[in-house]
Amino acid sequence: MPARSWLVWPKSSGRGRGGPPRPWCSAYAARHPDGELSATCLYAVYGPVSRLCSLASAGHVLPALATPTLPGSDGDDRPARSAAFLDMPIGPPLGLGGLPFETAQFELAEGSLLALYTDGLIQRRTQDVDAVRTLLCDALAGATGSPGEVCDHLLAALLSGRPADDVALLVARTLALAPGRVATLDLPSDPAAVSGARRFSSDTLSAWGLGDLAFATGLIVSELVTNAIRYGKSPIRLRLIRQSSLTREVFDASSTAPHLRRARAFDEGGRGLLLVAQLAERWGTRHSREGKAIWAEQALSH
Questions:
Q1: What is the β-pairing status of strands 104-107 and 113-117?
Q2: What's the pLDDT score for residue 29?
Q3: Are 135 and 78 in contact (CB under 8 A)?
Q4: Which residues make beta-bridge pairs with 291?
Q5: What residues pair up with 55 in beta bridges, in sequence order?
Q6: Angle at the Cα of 297 from the Cα atoms of 190 and 174, rounded to 5 degrees
Q7: pLDDT at 196 (0 to 100)
Q8: Mean pLDDT for each consecutive 10-residue tract of the chain (302 residues)?
Q9: CA 82, CA 55: separation in Å to the nearest integer?
C-alpha cells in the first residue's frame, strides 16, 4: 500500500474519496434517505508510518487478515502467517438509517494480507458458512506471491463452478516506511516556533538530497504551522515523509477543518491555504481521534 491508502468496498454501489471511515459512511447515508438506495460498504484507511488501519463497515462482511508470525523453514524465507477475521462492529447498510457507524482501528504488521470481498465468496446454499470462512482463512494464511496471485489462489480454493451470487475480491499487502524516510518535530503553540519548523524542514530535505524543494517546503510549512498555532490546539507536530512524493503534514488536536478563501486586497492575512494550494500538487485535511492533520504533497522526480 502507498503512503496512505483508502479502500472502499461497496456491495452494490457507492464510491470512495479521501477521509476517515466513519464520517464517510455517515455522509453517504445522509445523502440517501430511507428506502431510496441500499448498499453495504466497507471503508478502510491505512497509514504505513504508524501501520494503523482504520475501518468502518456499513452492513458489509468482515474482512480477513493474515499476519506474519514466524520465519520460514527449510530454506524458505517467506514468513508463516496466521489468518482470522477482524473483530469490529458492523453498522446498518447505507440507505437504511439506524445506528451510527463506528470506526475500529488495528495495528498491522508489515507484510500482512488484508482481504476484502463480497458475501458471494463465502455464502453457499449447500455448505455451512462457518466452514467456508475457515477455508478462506486457511487459504489466505497459506497464500504466496503478489496480491493478484493471492486473489487467484483464494478464488480457486473457495469457488467451484459458477457462483450463485456476484463475487468480488480485493487483497492488499501492507508496507511500512523505513524510519529514515520520516522526520518528525514536536512544536510548541508559539509563533516563534515557525522559524524552527522551517530550519528543521530545510535540514531534513538537505539530508535527503532534496535541497531544491527547501524553499517551497519552507513556505508551505510556515503556513501550515502558523495555521495550527492560530486556530488549532496543542499538541502540534510537523512530519515530513519521503516516498515517491514528498508529504508535509502538520497535526494539531483540534477537529475544526480549515477552509480555503480568497483574501481581500487590503487584508493582512487569509492567504495561507491559498499559497499552499498553489505550491503543492495536492493538499487536504485528514481527521483522526486525536484531532486533524493538514497535508500537502508534491511528486518527486529523484
A1: unpaired
A2: 57
A3: no
A4: 288
A5: 44, 104
A6: 105
A7: 97
A8: 49 41 57 66 91 92 90 53 94 80 92 93 83 94 94 92 80 94 97 97 97 95 95 96 95 82 51 86 88 93 67
A9: 20
Residue 300 has phi, psi (to 5 degrees) of -105, 140
Determine the pLDDT at residue 99.
72
Q: Would you say 69 and 129 are in contact if contact means Cβ atoms under 8 Å apart? A: no
Distance of CA 98 to the CA centre of its chain: 26
* Structure confidence at residue 161 (pLDDT): 73
User: Residue 172: is it exposed, middle or buried by C-beta count within 10 angstroms (0-12/13-18/19+)?
Assistant: buried
Q: Look up the CATH number of domain 179-299.
A: 3.30.565.10
Question: Which residue carries 516563534 as its cell?
Answer: 192
Cell digits of residue 10: 461497496
Q: How far is CA 195 from CA 216, 218, 236, in A?
A: 14, 9, 15
Q: The pTM is what?
A: 0.73
Phi, psi of 134 (to 5 degrees): -65, -40
CB atoms within 10 A of CB 162: 6
- Determine contact, residues 184/242, Cβ cutoff 8 Å: no
Residue type, position 217, single letter: T
Q: Name the residue ranges covered by the structural domains of the chain.
A: 5-173, 179-299
| Residue 235 preceded by cis peptide, ω within 30 | yes
Set of cell numbers at residue 136? 478462506
Please give the DSSP secondary-structure letter assigned to residue 297.
E
**85 residue type, one letter:** F
CA 55 to the chain's CA centroid: 9
CATH 3.60.40.10 correct for 5-173: yes
Distance CA 15, CA 224 (A): 30
